Amino acid sequence: MTDSLLEGRTVAVLGGTGPQGRGLARRWATAGIPVVIGSRNAERAEAAAAELAEATGGQVSGSDNGGAAQQGDIVVVAVPWDGHKELLEQLAADLAGKVVVDCVNPLGFDKQGAYALPVEEGSALQQATAVLADSTVVGAFHNVSAVLLDDPEVDRVDTDVLVLGDVREATDLVQALADAIPGVRGVYGGRARNAHQVEAFTANLISVNRRYKAHSGLRVTDV
Amino acid sequence: MTDSLLEGRTVAVLGGTGPQGRGLARRWATAGIPVVIGSRNAERAEAAAAELAEATGGQVSGSDNGGAAQQGDIVVVAVPWDGHKELLEQLAADLAGKVVVDCVNPLGFDKQGAYALPVEEGSALQQATAVLADSTVVGAFHNVSAVLLDDPEVDRVDTDVLVLGDVREATDLVQALADAIPGVRGVYGGRARNAHQVEAFTANLISVNRRYKAHSGLRVTDV
């Protein structure tokens, strides 16, 4: 059962063939939300969409990222950090007037694990906000385990999703999108200027995963 | 009941008359750990110590920050960000050879709430590590509600404490120090280079507190 805020809305997932994007698409399709999977390669997107439609019984189609950006009412950006800015610049016109949900974590990796990369604009969310002047950009889904999301054997993903942004109507909508995933709760997590640490926090969860052999996530207490 | 790692160790809390420091001191004293409260003003420290000894039945004394640094086997730094570096520079010799636990969040505040301040060294923890070359510096207790810690009516503080650092023996010790507080669990959260986002995350929790009228904290899931 999805929130009425989501009624009649199609969710496009750019980078929807990667583990995070496909995992989110899987969950929303299962929840009855129409999903368009976007990818650089339209054929790969269509193949992933057919597989997810079959697995979930949901309404899933595939397209290149540009087509997905056009078809989505809400557009989720789950692409690698490398190329994030360029992709959004290309799609800015298609994304105008829409709510864009940035899930991207600017991280580097070396032998000691993951670490936060510096971002000129402050965070991936602020970079997206700067590039997409005509969209309403919200940050969310940074800290959710892609492994759990994309595992059809996992019924519930027990974690909170921090939703960041400066426009209340848009953060409420994205909280509903989080709440549509069984086990997940959308929690307002602050303004866009406080997105950097939420993105970077994924590096800490990767350290936790290594130490404890876990697929860790976050819960906010007393809320 | 405290972990054997903590046996025979005295914990000094610099900034122990502030809400965070006093809250931590209260919890450790209640747990039977000998505590020295440090403050810029020795008389204020002694008054706070007498009050806490009375309230908890624990072993609590007070001193200026220098005396506390000398007396503690583990020294917790819970001072304001403004003056953090200077204080540690002054106390570097007293802190040599000890485990120093930095709890400081470099935050600014304005009408829109809290936000992360830039730190030249990357984080308060990395600044402390740079200044205290002869100590083992660990980051912890950044995201725990001072209000809950310092409220004698609150029996349990249900939150995880992320413990950050590059020396396993020291992070294990500080996890035990977290575990000594009823409700709290110490969780290894990564290396010192990933401390910035944990410190800054307190700004997000302050946003959560405003929105939901809560005293929020974190739990790490699947651990």
Automatic annotation (TrEMBL), chains A, B:
Q: What is the lineage of its organism?
A: Bacteria, Bacillati, Actinomycetota, Actinomycetes, Propionibacteriales
Alphabetical list of InterPro entries matching this protein: NAD(P)-bd_dom_sf, NpdG, P5C_Rdtase_cat_N, STEAP_metalloreductase
This protein is called NADPH-dependent F420 reductase
Annotated Pyrroline-5-carboxylate reductase catalytic N-terminal domain residues? 10-106
Which of UniProt's keywords are assigned here? Oxidoreductase
The record ties this protein, via NCBIfam families, to: npdG (TIGR01915)
